[in-house]
């Protein structure tokens, strides 16, 4: 969904000579259908590699679990992360120069995420409908580049809003679910709930390689707008470029510009509360919104075809990963 949770190898203009052919760019000699096929094949290969890693990791965990039965002090991941009480409030980030922008963008994005789709002729088009998951987009272009806003709605059982946002925000887990990621660097550790990332994505021929520089903020929402929800958490990511951060388009990578918000609400079975609920009583409602400018140039038809295929796969992969990670752990609210 990166993050910067786009999870997609965003396409755009190569920075090389306009006479170079066989690569991405307005002077490329590759027909659009072949361009799409090549990128699709690259994405499929990445997904196959991810599935292999998952199987190997599962087998390793099975062996580890058997071994731990014979250990008097087995190590476990079943503990709730110990974070300060003001985590998710922005209290420790408010003194940073980015804070006014972070606070403003988070508020704006949350307001937009709460708005409905298909109302008032606002242009949202349903492009994926798979059970509880529905995905919408609006066709928009800037200087000929596709930047279609995306909005996804999903419902997942067995996890909380905080757990979903925890795995989306924390870079320790990102390689497990963001398949096109090559490298993640924290370029500014603003606060425990606010980080600035430089992410580099794998190059998929014939597309140019991409990177993204953005701040990411995780916050608990306490405005009581979401009636009936036990709690509400968000993660908001937004591209930023300060003079002390790595500049854009200086090396082999073309810079992606993005705004992303993940909004999660926890609902409990009637009659249950956070002390009595089990995972069977948990429902997490998810709204994921993103606007991504991939930079440079690529055929609009290719971009939209790839988005249509890859975004549903991303959301199912990520939410499935979180459910799997949480099922044997104590509940985190």
Automatic annotation (TrEMBL):
The record's listing under InterPro entries reads: STARD11_START, START-like_dom_sf, START_lipid-bd_dom, START_lipid_transfer
Q: Which residues form the START domain?
A: 120-318
Q: Which SMART domains match?
A: START (SM00234)
| Any GO CC annotation of this UniProt entry | cytoplasm
Q: Which GO terms describe its molecular function?
A: lipid binding
Tell me the GO BP annotations in alphabetical order. ER to Golgi ceramide transport
| Region of interest (Disordered), ranges | 1-31
Question: Which keywords are on file for this protein?
Answer: Coiled coil, Cytoplasm, Lipid transport, Transport
Location in the cell? Cytoplasm
- Could you tell me which CDD domains the record lists for this protein? START_STARD11-like
Q: Which protein is depicted?
A: START domain-containing protein
Q: Which organism is it from?
A: Anopheles culicifacies
């Amino acid at each position: 969904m990166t993050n910067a949770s786009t999870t997609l190898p965003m396409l755009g203009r190569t920075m090389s000579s306009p006479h170079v052919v066989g690569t991405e760019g307005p002077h490329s000699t590759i027909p659009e259908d072949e361009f799409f096929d090549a990128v699709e094949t690259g994405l499929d290969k990445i997904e196959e590699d991810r599935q292999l890693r998952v199987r190997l990791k599962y087998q390793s965990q099975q062996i580890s679990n058997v071994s731990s039965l014979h250990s008097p002090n087995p190590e476990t991941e079943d503990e709730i992360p110990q974070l300060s009480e003001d985590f998710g409030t922005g209290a420790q980030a408010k003194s940073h120069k980015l804070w006014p922008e972070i606070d403003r963008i988070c508020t704006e994005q949350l307001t937009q995420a709460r708005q409905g789709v298909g109302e008032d002729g606002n242009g949202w088009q349903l492009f994926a409908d798979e059970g509880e998951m529905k995905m919408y987009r609006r066709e928009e272009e800037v200087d000929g580049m596709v930047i279609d806003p995306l909005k996804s709605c999903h419902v997942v059982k067995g996890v909380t809003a905080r757990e979903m946002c925890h795995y989306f925000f924390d870079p320790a887990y990102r390689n497990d679910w963001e398949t096109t990621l090559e490298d993640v660097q924290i370029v500014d550790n603003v606060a425990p709930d606010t980080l600035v990332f430089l992410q580099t994505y794998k190059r998929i021929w014939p597309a140019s390689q991409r990177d993204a520089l953005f701040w990411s903020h995780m916050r608990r929402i306490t405005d009581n707008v979401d009636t009936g929800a036990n709690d509400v958490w968000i993660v908001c990511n937004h591209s930023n470029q300060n003079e002390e951060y790595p500049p854009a388009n200086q090396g082999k990578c073309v810079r992606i510009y993005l705004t992303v918000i993940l909004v999660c609400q926890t609902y409990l079975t009637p009659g249950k509360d956070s002390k009595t609920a089990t995972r069977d009583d948990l429902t997490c409602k998810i709204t994921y919104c993103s606007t991504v400018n991939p930079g440079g140039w690529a055929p609009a038809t290719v971009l939209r075809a790839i988005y249509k295929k890859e975004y549903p796969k991303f959301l199912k992969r990520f939410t499935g990963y979180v459910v799997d990670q949480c099922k044997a752990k104590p509940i985190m609210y």
